[in-house]
Amino acid sequence: MFVIHASGVAFLRERHPERQKGYNVTMPSLSADQVSSQEIADRLKKVREKMEQAGFSAYISFNPDNIYYLTNFANFVHERPFVLVVTASALTFIIPRLERAHVERHRVGDELTLVEYAEFPARAGTRWSDRLLDLLPAQGTVGIEGACPAYLSALVSNPTQILNVIDTVREIKSPHEIARIAWTSDVMTHALAMMLGAVKNGTLVAQAIGNVTPYFYQRCLAEAPNYNVMSTHAAGLIQPPAYTDDPHNFSCLTAPCEPGGPFLGLVAGKINGYGAEIERTFFLEHCPEDARRPFDTMMEMRHKAYAMLRPGAIGSEIDAACQEIARKAGYDVPLHRTGHSFGVTSHEAPFLAVGEDNVLQPGMVFSIEPGIYLKGIAGFRHSDTVLVTEAGYEILTRYPDERNDLTLS
Fold first, then answer.
1. What is the 3-state secondary structure (H, E, C) of 61-89?
2. Which terminus of the chain is less hemmed in, N or C, by CB atoms within 10 Å?
3. Judging by DSSP bridges, how do beta strands 91-96 and 393-395 pair with one another?
4. How many domains does the chain have?
5. Average pLDDT in the 127-143 region?
6. 246 and 106, same structural domain?
7. Are residues 321 and 382 in the same domain?
């Protein structure tokens, strides 16, 4: 049986009414349903509109995430290439013969045509590159996404232009995608609550996180009839205090949980095709006195990000405002940006970063995760998955974030 931590799951909005400006009352619907043919057609229409604007006669996609977005096919891609070619009148998927049955089982969309090649490596005339050249128009500019390897670009004799067309379409999520991300967020929020509920004095990190992956599978098997393990890469992890100044170092599975903190609890990745994350800085039995000020500064940065989060806001300005709070408090410039986006991946554009002057639009989904890191001492960071709405924003990972709620007994 899975035990949910008593303080979690329900967002305690009634305790913080001053922070709910712009915060929608109704959560988006949750869904683990498979994408429909109409949804794929709508995405393809948007891609073709951007191709036309750019003057492309064809567009080549090599990125497995973009291929999944337009076909519903997910796979661990090794040396055998999968290449998607989009034109005004066709959507063609070049695949190894080995994978044809696999693709047929998962493909969605009325327009997709499969073209197979023999193997990799293969003899001239039967290679994937031969099939690609057969499909390209004799004239016109061919668009190529930035993730395409140089050896693919070198094959194309047409004029080429690197432009991330599909990635740009992915930035604004459809209602179907929002429901899928909301479902993933719900799974991850419950997993975090379960994980923190297992933290006691003396508990090993490995023991506290042990039920997270089984819980992912339990939810998928119960609620996602078309669950695809190939499109699931997620984990629940905990950092003891000595590791929290190093945000991506989770090499401490045998460390015991001891009173004090800060600890960092994280559940992140993608489940059944869509990404999300939730993170909480927490304490065990008590919060050390020297942890209070950096925690409070992190929370001030977090509140500032939410106060600015709305359609029309500029991503770089949100990040700059958070950095300024850290500087005024006497801390170094944060190690990382305020946020990144989610979709068919767990990290994607656009970003809340000083280097990107993107304009926020309804349907974008961001992490809000400004952090304070004191080298050799400790780090402090919460993260939530947040939808930009017409009215402001909606937090999809609802879990307590105040110090008192996150001081575990």
1. ECCHHHHHHHHCCCCCCCCCCCEEEECCC
2. N
3. unpaired
4. 2
5. 97
6. no
7. yes
Name the residue with tokens 């992490």: 367
Closest listed residue to residue 173, CA positions, set 185, 190, 162: 185
Tokens 């036309």 belong to residue:
52
Range of the domain at 301: 172-406
The sheet that has 160-162: what strands, in order across it? 112-117, 91-96, 83-86, 56-61, 141-144, 160-162
Query: In this structure, what CATH number is given to the domain that contains residue 351?
Result: 3.90.230.10
Q: Which of 283, 281, 275, 286 minimizes the C-alpha distance to 301? A: 281
| Same domain, yes or no: 252 and 366 | yes
228: CB partners within 8 A, 6+ apart:
74, 106, 272, 273
Contact predicate 347/340, CB 8 Å: yes
Does some domain include residue 380?
yes
pTM, whole model, 2 decimals?
A: 0.93
User: In this predicted model, what pLDDT tens digit does every residue of 317-362 receive, in sequence order?
Assistant: 999 999 999 999 999 888 999 999 999 999 999 999 999 999 999 9
Residue 149, Cβ density class (10 Å: 0-12 exposed, 13-18 middle, ≥19 buried)? exposed
